[in-house]
Amino acid sequence: MDLKLDGKIALVTGSSKGIGEAIARGLAREKAIVVVHGRNRTQTEDVARDIVRDGGRAHAVVGDLTVDEDVSALVDEAHAVAGPIDILVNNAGGSGAAEEWSESRPLSWMSAYDRNVVAAVRVTTRLLPRMRQAGWGRVINISSLAGLMPPASRPDYAACKAAMNAMTVSMARAAAADGVTVNTVSPGTIHSGRLDARFREVAVERGLNEDAPWVEIEQAVLPLFAQVPLGRVGTLEEIADAVSFLVSPRAGYITGANLRLDGGMLPTI
Questions:
Q1: Domain of 177?
Q2: What is the distance between the alpha carbons of residues 159 and 109, in angstroms, rounded to a whole number?
Q3: Per the domain annotation, does 269 fall within a domain?
């Protein structure tokens, strides 16, 4: 299926590694012009360079999304090197240190909210007006299953992702008449580098070889972490494919939605 993304310009925040990198690479495969963002210049430029080497089109911008001046500068640079942004993927954020309710600190909550929610607001409010004026745009907020199915630990992170879900619906309603769609993607248990390392660590504790094939590691360890009806973790490529569809013209009637990529973990529609 041709997603009709050829020439669309996409800024993916936090795309120098992990889920963001996978999304940037996926959009580039669909012929979008991708602006890769990160805080580490070398890492960010390496991803953009790899995309170009693979036949895609990409540029790199660097900045801290918790700093207003950095956001203004990186948006200006993105416009200068790539052109007006058609697609924004708010992926940057993170859970921070694990805290239980008995030790959760207000400072941790404020930092998490700034890093996950306000950072997305800073970028979005700089790009949304131009999208609305152009009559076409796409915003994707990368949330988490934690926003719908909060665990006992990291309550600040779960609350931030729930806020992003609500933010998506509000923004979608505000921008719909101007041809801009806004949606959320909520990953569940995904095969990232960090998850791979943790699963293999637990596998060794249970007597398996650290270098065993991934399918053996997954089958032995996944039930200890999550009850996934599909019986496996998701892949970065599956997230990238879902985002690529949602930002495409073919998904023009989808807005204000939250697409779960969780293998059926959430026991409700």
A1: 9-190+235-261
A2: 9
A3: no
The catalytic site residues sit at 157
Per-residue pLDDT tens over the stretch 134-193: 999 999 999 999 999 998 889 999 999 999 999 999 999 999 999 999 999 999 999 999
Q: Is the pTM of this model over 0.90?
A: yes
Query: Rounded to whole angstroms, how far apart are CA atoms 176 and 169?
Result: 10
**What one-letter code names the amino acid at 86?**
D
User: Is residue 127 located within the same domain as residue 197?
Assistant: no
pLDDT tens digits for 184-230? Answer: 999 999 999 999 999 999 999 999 998 999 999 999 999 999 999 99
Instruction: Verify that 27 and 157 share a domain, yes or no.
Output: yes
170 with 243, same domain?
yes
- Shared domain for 177 and 212, answered yes or no, is no
CATH number at residue 61: 3.40.50.720
